[in-house]
């Protein structure tokens, strides 16, 4: 994977206006993102910006590649950037009307987001005492090594901030 990424980066350096090279570079980053455990993968911003470069200004022919938009939408969906994912799936479907995959995935994502909104509105379909039990603090023994003397302590959701 690392060798393919290095080769793709070299191809982009050779000709930064070649949309196919940007496409391959984006796919290399997506592959590493999913193969490497996803969390904290440093190439994610570069992957998204690389695909955006292709689709916005580098190579109009490459921007018409529906697979490019589907791959970007997949990454955005895993990053929970749902608006961008929906737009990418729609674009892929528009570019390849006979290809069912983008439309199917668009419908699945719409369904997932609808379910998520309904669960948020109904507070997970839990009532009274049961909801309070679920929403309460996690007992420290259940946190394992995180609940030890020097480990992190439970925090209210309102107190959480981005970071490690």
From TrEMBL:
It comes from the Eukaryota. InterPro entries: TPR-like_helical_dom_sf (IPR011990). Residues 130-164 are annotated as: Disordered. Residues 134-144 have a biased composition (Low complexity). This is TTC5 protein. It comes from Melospiza melodia.
């Amino acid at each position: 994977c690392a060798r393919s990424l290095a080769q793709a980066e070299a191809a982009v350096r050779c000709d930064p206006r070649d949309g196919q090279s940007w496409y391959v570079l984006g796919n290399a980053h997506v592959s590493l993102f999913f193969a490497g455990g996803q969390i904290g993968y440093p190439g994610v911003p570069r992957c998204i910006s690389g695909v955006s470069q292709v689709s916005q200004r580098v190579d109009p022919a490459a921007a018409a590649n529906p697979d490019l938009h589907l791959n970007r939408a997949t990454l955005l969906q895993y990053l929970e950037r749902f608006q961008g994912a929906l737009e990418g799936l729609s674009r892929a479907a528009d570019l390849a009307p006979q290809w069912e995959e983008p439309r199917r995935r668009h419908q699945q994502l719409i369904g997932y987001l609808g379910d998520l909104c309904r669960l948020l509105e109904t507070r997970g379909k839990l009532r009274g005492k049961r909801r309070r039990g679920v929403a309460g603090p996690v007992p420290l023994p259940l946190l394992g090594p995180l609940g030890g003397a020097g480990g992190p302590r439970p925090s209210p959701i309102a107190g959480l901030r981005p970071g490690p």
